[in-house]
Automatic annotation (TrEMBL):
It holds the Pfam family ArsC. It comes from the Bacteria. InterPro entries: Arsenate_reductase-like, Thioredoxin-like_sf, Tscrpt_reg_Spx/MgsR. Coiled coil: none annotated. The lineage of its organism: Bacteria, Pseudomonadati, Bacteroidota, Sphingobacteriia, Sphingobacteriales. This is ArsC family reductase.
Length: 115
């Protein structure tokens, strides 16, 4: 299992704390340090939709002007933006056996999916 995110994100911390508490082994992929590929983002968009993968609640998105935000209106543009600004990726994203299965953190969803 791989957890993708950035270590100082509170949602990522909650996810990792839950995994540790439930004794579930995982590998952490810090996309601030290791980056992320367009291929991986496309896979996640296929599972969750690009509108979900793009974090519109974070500071990175909110720093954009309304014009810049409205210009990111499709998956291709969203992926280009997320590659340049990895903080704009909703996190964490959890993969099991190479397949994205969870996005963000919800204790009930984690228990259902990984319990």
């Amino acid at each position: 299992m791989t957890v993708y995110g950035i270590p100082n994100c509170n949602t990522v911390k909650k996810s990792i704390d839950w995994l540790k508490a439930n004794q579930i082994d995982y590998e952490f992929h810090d996309f601030k340090k290791k980056g992320i590929t367009a291929q991986k983002l496309n896979e996640w968009c296929k599972v969750f939709g690009w509108e979900t993968v793009l974090n519109r609640k974070g500071l990175t998105w909110k720093k954009l002007s309304k014009e810049e935000q409205s210009a990111i209106d499709n998956q291709e543009k969203a992926i280009a933006y997320m590659i340049e600004n990895t903080s704009a990726i909703k996190r964490p994203i959890v993969e099991k056996n190479g397949q994205a299965i969870l996005i963000s953190f919800d204790e009930n969803r984690y228990a259902e999916t990984l319990g």
